[in-house]
Design brief:
- There is one protein chain.
- The protein is of the alpha/beta class.
- It folds into two domains: 226 residues, Zn peptidases (Aminopeptidase); 97 residues, Peptidase M42, domain 2 (Elongation Factor Tu (Ef-tu), domain 3, Beta Barrel), CATH 2.40.30.40.
- 26% of the residues lie in helices and 28% in strands.
- Strands 1, 2, 3, 12, 13, 14, 15, 16 and 17 form a nine-stranded mixed β-sheet that branches.
- A hairpin with a 5-residue loop joins strand 4 and strand 5.
- The longest helix has 19 residues.
- The protein is globular.
- 46% of the residues are buried.
């Protein structure tokens, strides 16, 4: 297997995490991404709605490799009479996975305020027993409490906060014994793997046997990250997390080749190419199926009508859309399979 630049991958991952990018909030992450791609020396373009597409070299019918860099989060739905914020999710964020999380509130006038996602009432010692068993619900008993001395809606509005402001969750990255724990491993860890592959291509002066794009999408979490592709793309490979669970084969220390998600089976022959490549390259992999609530940007492109083959790979990841966990070995195996597939000579 090709040498994996662990230091660069972790650095890129943490730099991506540091740029809040709740879906729709594209400027900071777009600026960071274009800077990282310029550092690597690849030409790129920015799509009209915000995606970043880098050209990795090669000729002929193109393969687009996509990883998304938008995050799930919250939006201000209303300002409550006590000055707290009523919220709604952006993407697949559930209350039980974010209550007690620290957040940053981005107003449309450029202010950034900190706060915490809280239950109401929020102190267990003064909560009646029957309320302790009620599940958190964004519409009924969850709010964001600002780190400000406010006690009315008027005082909160005076800070510049209003309906429609974006709320980003704190990632809280840490690593122990090779395990990475953070929000937004989905999909910033995979984007970091793709950047690490790009670094290897540049530094090792690898000549790709076919034309390849690296497509960093910004609307995957709400289903339309890659509904526009370069005209010469005939194959698409998503690099995204492989959720672990009781009925899953995915493993945090391995790369998963996706057989099917909640919408479609992946392309039979392209998936078989990945499987053969993994075996020939000594990559530790599994096959898996993800239902009932999972999809990748490949689904968006297929649904948009593109005549493409599509496939997906990614590291096994626990606690998807919550405080997620994967392992460096999972990133290493994803890197190895992706680089081996990009450099394979087509029969």
């Amino acid at each position: 297997m090709q040498s994996f630049d662990e230091t660069y991958c972790l650095s890129a991952f943490q730099r991506l995490l540091a740029a809040d990018s709740t879906t729709g909030q594209i400027e900071p992450i777009q600026s960071l991404l274009t800077g990282l791609i310029e550092e690597l020396g690849f030409p790129y373009r920015v799509t009209h709605k915000g995606g970043v597409i880098a050209e990795l070299g090669g000729e002929g019918n193109a393969l687009a490799v996509t990883a998304h860099v938008d995050d799930i989060g919250l939006m201000v739905r209303k300002i409550n009479p006590d000055g707290t914020l009523g919220v709604c999710p952006v993407g697949g964020l559930y209350p039980f996975y974010c209550v007690t999380e620290n957040v940053r509130v981005y107003t449309r006038d450029g202010a950034v305020l900190t706060g915490t996602v809280c239950r109401t009432p929020n102190s267990i010692h003064v909560t009646e027993d029957e309320l302790r068993s009620v599940l958190p619900d964004f519409r009924k008993n969850v709010c964001v409490v600002l780190d400000q001395a406010v006690s009315s809606a008027e005082e909160t509005r005076a800070l510049g906060v209003e309906t429609g402001d974006m709320i980003a969750l704190e990632p809280r990255f840490t690593m122990s014994n090779g395990y990475l724990k953070s929000r937004f491993i989905d999909d910033k860890a995979c984007a970091a793997v793709l950047l690490t592959v790009m670094k290897a291509i540049r530094e090792q002066k690898i000549r790709l046997p076919r034309k390849c794009y690296a497509y960093f999408a910004l609307y995957e979490e709400i289903g339309h990250g890659t509904v526009v592709l370069p005209e010469d793309v005939t194959d698409m490979l998503a690099v995204d997390i492989a959720p672990t669970g009781p009925d899953q084969t995915s493993d945090e220390r391995k790369v998963t080749i996706f057989a099917k998600d909640s919408r479609f089976p992946y392309h039979w022959e392209m998936t078989n190419e990945l499987r053969r490549t993994a075996r020939e390259s000594g990559v530790d992999f599994v096959m898996d199926i993800f239902t009932p609530h999972y999809g990748t940007d490949c689904d968006a492109s297929v649904s948009a009508g593109y005549d493409i083959r599509h496939a997906a790979i990614g590291p096994g990841t626990a606690n998807s859309h919550g405080y997620e966990r994967t392992h460096l070995d999972g990133l290493r195996n994803t890197y190895a399979l992706l680089l081996a597939y990009l450099t394979r000579k087509e029969p």
